[in-house]
Amino acid sequence: MDTELKGALDAHGAAIDAAIKKYDGQIAEAGKADSEIRAQVKAMSDKFEATITEIGQKMAIAGEQSEPPVTAGAEFVKSAQFAALLSGQVNTARVEVKNTVVTQPGAPFPENRPGIIPGAFGPLTVRQLLTTINVTSNSVPVLRELAWTNNAAETAEGAAKPESVLTFAPYDVLIRTIPHFIKVSTQLMADAPAVVAYIDTRLRDGLSQRIERQIVIGDGTAPNLSGLNDAGNFTAFTPLSGANLIESINRARWSLWSAGYVPDTVIVNPADWAAMEVLREGVGTGAYLYGAPGMIGSPNPFGLNLVVSNWLPAGQLWVGNLTTAATLFQRSGAVVEMGFVNDDFTRNLVTIRAEERLGLGVDVPAATRYGPITAA
User: Fold this and answer.
1) 90, pLDDT greater than 70
2) Where are the alpha helices (DSSP H) in the chain?
3) What is the pTM of this model?
4) Cα dist. 286→276, 283, 306 in Å?
5) What is the pLDDT of residues 292-314, one digit of tens each?
6) What are the sequence ranges of the domains in the chain?
7) What confidence score (pLDDT) does residue 372 get?
8) Residue 16: pLDDT above 80?
9) Among 36, 44, 256, 276, which is disulfide-ready with 245 (CB 3.0 to 4.6 Å)?
10) How far apart are CA 246 and CA 324, in angstroms?
11) Alpha carbon distances (Å) from 88 to 79, 85, 164
12) For residues 320 and 370, what is the distance between their CA atoms, to the nearest angstrom?
């Protein structure tokens, strides 16, 4: 419509210019213009005004009849790819939706709030307490103490000295790879670097969350890590019947002391700790056993470092010397890479991949206690 309007203006403008020149020539020669040229100028002026009015009306009608912006869902449903999917010709359908930002007449362009409102980033509680050793191989051979019999004793002069027994056992810590990826358009990478940076952060956090889970409950079956509560990585804890969480923590703590280990950490599920915080006396005042909610109480029962983990199964507890019992062997830290995969290049896509390679070794299972909070 802009081209039509410009063409009309140019054409009428040229005709009026010619008529005015002729009009001015007659005025210069005779001091007046004849009636024919005056009528011609007026007719052209009237026609010019009518043409402008007509074009304006056409533009208004076209604006009213223009289709509203199509939503992504509507565009997908109308697509030939979707029709092919319904008819069974293809198994998948992909439609690239053009995300065009439009404004309604008279409405200002919307302003974006700076930054990105993030989703949930779960707390990481266990890994940060582990000793981490960097390695350069796919497996780490470890030699750990299996049994120790201390036969040291007072001995009379000339008598045979007692012999103690120390047994070692080798085991291999296998390095596992934990990856994931996401695809983004090259346009997004060029136009929204903040979004790409957020994706990088999300990918790294996703790795950390999965690794945290594997550290606690990995079952050791390839490609899983062998976690803290995997068979063979702990000493079973035997609770008393009817014991609550605090009572079982105390029992496990002193069990470790009697075995020669000084515990430093207790790991519990948040649901179990929440129940402990509001536990009351069964008789008497009904006071909270772990302190009134309005008072600031110690979150470290019996001096142990309390670690709340979503991954420890509810109804269970882990108590031990975490710095001594387990070691994290890291082959490579979180690595984020970008590249074209398969047909990414022709589809204007880029694959962003994040991965980490590591393994967990529980060196001293005897320095841990793991089991139910209360006996069935």
Assistant:
1) no
2) 2-30, 35-65, 72-77, 80-87, 186-191, 193-217, 245-258, 270-277, 322-325
3) 0.66
4) 14, 6, 25
5) 777 766 678 899 999 999 999 99
6) 1-95, 127-151+165-372
7) 97
8) no
9) 276
10) 23
11) 15, 5, 76
12) 9
Beta strand pairing status for 139-149 and 176-185? unpaired
For residue 285, the Cα-to-chain-centroid distance in whole angstroms is: 47
pLDDT tens per residue, range 337-349: 888 888 888 888 8
**Rounded Cα–Cα distance for residues 366 and 144 (Å):** 11
Query: 3-state SS of the chain: helix, strand, coil percent to 5?
Result: 40, 25, 40
The CATH classification of domain 127-151+165-372, taken from the options 3.40.630.10, 3.30.2400.10, 1.20.1640.10, 1.10.1200.10:
3.30.2400.10
Tokens of 112: 């974006």
Rounded to whole angstroms, the Cα distance separating 146 from 322 reads 18
Sheet hosting strand 265-268, strand order edge to edge:
235-236, 368-372, 316-320, 265-268, 305-308
Q: Are 191 and 332 in contact (CB under 8 A)?
A: no
22 residue type, one letter: K
The b-or-e profile of 95-114 (16+ CB within 10 A means b, else e) is eeeeeeeeeeeeeeeeeeee
Taking residues 92-121, report their average pLDDT: 51
Q: What whole-number distance in Å separates Cα of residue 349 and Cα of residue 144?
A: 49
Contact 364, 234 (CB under 8 A): no
d(CA 197, CA 201): 6
Give the 3-state secondary structure of residue 10.
helix
Q: What are the pLDDT digits (tens) for 197-223? A: 888 888 899 999 999 999 999 999 999
The amino acid at 272? D
Residue type, 65: Q
- Provide the residue type at 139 as one letter: S
